[in-house]
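Fold it.
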Amino acid sequence: MENQKFENLKVMVIDDSKTIRRTAETLLSKVGCVVITAIDGFDALAKIADSRPDIIFVDIMMPRLDGYQTCALIKNNSHFSSTPVIMLSSKDGLFDKAKGRIVGSDQYLTKPFSKDELLGAIEAQLGNVGAES
């Protein structure tokens, strides 16, 4: 019953790395999440309105629209401002974490992440998920 809480949870993973997208998708699908992937910020923004994810993971280093810009755009949209956004980065720097906070990210996960870290991040945000629905 442990995974019941992830059942049908819509999770978006935005990363320009196919490996990261595939890894996250596999881990999350196994616990019952519905996973939507996007290759960059523009791709994600087009999909967010349609899919209305419960939680969003976004990579910081991406071409065209980086994770900070993507997060800021999500948080500045009144429909999605309460959607938890978790930054993904291969850098574990204080500066990156601080910058993530400034643009409104709810959490910061360093890559490579483990299954426990990924699910732990979702659990930490679950209190915020579906509060208004």
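Residues 6-125 form a domain with the Rossmann fold fold (CATH 3.40.50.2300).
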